[in-house]
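Ticket #4471: structure export looks truncated?
Reporter: QA, pipeline team
Priority: medium

Steps to reproduce: submit the single chain below to the structure queue and open the exported record.
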Amino acid sequence: MLGRVQKQVAQGWPEVGVLDAGEVLDRARDLARWLANAYPGARLHGELPFSRPLPTGQMQSGQIDLALELADGWVIVDHKSNPQPKAEWPRLAAKHSGQLAAYADALASLGGKPVRETLIHFSVSGGLVRVSG
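Actual output as written to the record:
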C-alpha cells in the first residue's frame, strides 16, 4: 500500500511535511535508470559495510549507502534526504565531501580498485551531484 507517509523534516524544518510514497518510489526508479545508463553492467552493493585499521592504530568502520562495482573501479553514491532546492545542492554536497573521501579511501584500500567518482543523491528532491571524479 503506497498511501502517504508523514515525516518530520530534518534540521531547520520544524513543520511536518508529507511525502507521497509514490513520489519516493519514482525518485528511486529515476536513480536506478540513471545508474543503469551511466554504468551499464555495474554490480550494485547496498549498505556496504567496511572496517579497516588506520595508520594511527584506530579502526575506521562505516556503511556506504551504495557502491557500484565496475570492472576498473568503484562509484560511491551517498543518499541525503535534504529537501533543499537545486540551487543549494552543490553547497550541501560540498559539506559531505569529507565523508565521501573517507569512504573512497576505505573502499580503494580494501577493494584493490580505485574509486572513479563519488556522488550525492538527494532522494527527496531527486537530484544527483558529482562530488569527485
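Status: closed, not a bug. The export was complete when the record was re-opened. Leaving a note from the reviewer for reference: The CA atoms of residues 1 and 131 lie 35 Å apart.
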